[in-house]
Amino acid sequence: MKSYTFHIHEMHCASCTVLTDMELRSHSDVESVRVHLDTKTVDVVGNFETQEEARLELAPLLAPHGYTLAHEAAIAPRDSIIRALPFAAGIIALFLVLQTFGLAGTLGNDAITPATALIIGFIASLSSCGAVVGSLLLSLTAHYANKGERIVPQLTFHGGRLIAFFVLGGLLGTFGSILTLGFYTTLILNIVVTLMLLALGMSLLNIARVKLLTLPAFVTKPITKLVSAKKPWTPFALGALTFFLPCGFTQSAQLYSLSLGTFADGAMFMSMFALGTLPVLLIISFLPLAFRNPQKKQLFNTVAGILVLFFALYTLYTTLNILI
């Protein structure tokens, strides 16, 4: 057995590590896998004669998810940012128009609105966060399709996801009220959300090496094992438990829900986030599509990175306005 280290292009959050670990471990010649999010690398121990042989064997496992297994680190090309700017600018302009005419609505304070949650949820569904949920969903779909069940399990999965995000989001809001979050505590939470979004945006753009918050393996690994379970409640439980998957987008939304301080606001905010993810996840349920082309994945991640940086700065701006 030999050990090799590879760089993974387009890796940006903890969900990437879950997805990468699942795919590489599925290869029969792989003994162990260790993914490092901060360096965007993976250590693989396996029965391969050379590093190039290992790369050629393992790269196809990650390619369908838009990742590239490489010998060198990824660098964000300038032309990718230039091509991404018009798309990002269009979405930002739409958001600002909604804000100007009061169509976005507000939640708690004015730092982040339901429209923001909807947009961030949509971005998350197209990122590796959505890829992990989508992979679980595709496995679930294949399992039940073999039994002749093609619709009900998928709808049950989405129902479990929406209900869990509503209830658990509400509980986060309630917990925030129990803590009796004061003005400065809420302000600090908003700043932490801003910093998390900034870190996520910089990671998406490959402009900084950041270490993002992750959940321990003992929380996330049981979720992936549920896919192979054959219980009637499996789809609903799997959908509900995606609330705990390590996604930077989801974690930022959860932290912000805590600062809202009421069940209604927390439930509404996380529900809007979940609804933002729904269109893409529905497509994955019934028509397996994804950003499989590396160039398209890179373009999307660049657009997403610009948008996340915008929302981070917008959150910081509105938060600082509270002090004025």
UniProtKB/TrEMBL annotation:
Keyword line: Membrane, Transmembrane, Transmembrane helix
Family annotation (InterPro entries): HMA_dom (IPR006121), HMA_dom_sf (IPR036163), UreH-like_TM_dom (IPR039447)
GO molecular function terms listed in the Swiss-Prot or TrEMBL record: metal ion binding
Domain Urease accessory protein UreH-like transmembrane: 116-313
Segments traversing the membrane: 84-105, 117-141, 162-181, 187-212, 233-256, 268-287, 299-317
Record's keyword annotation contains DNA damage: no
All residue ranges annotated as the HMA domain in the record: 5-50
Protein name: Uncharacterized protein
Organism: Candidatus Kaiserbacteria bacterium RIFCSPHIGHO2_02_FULL_49_34
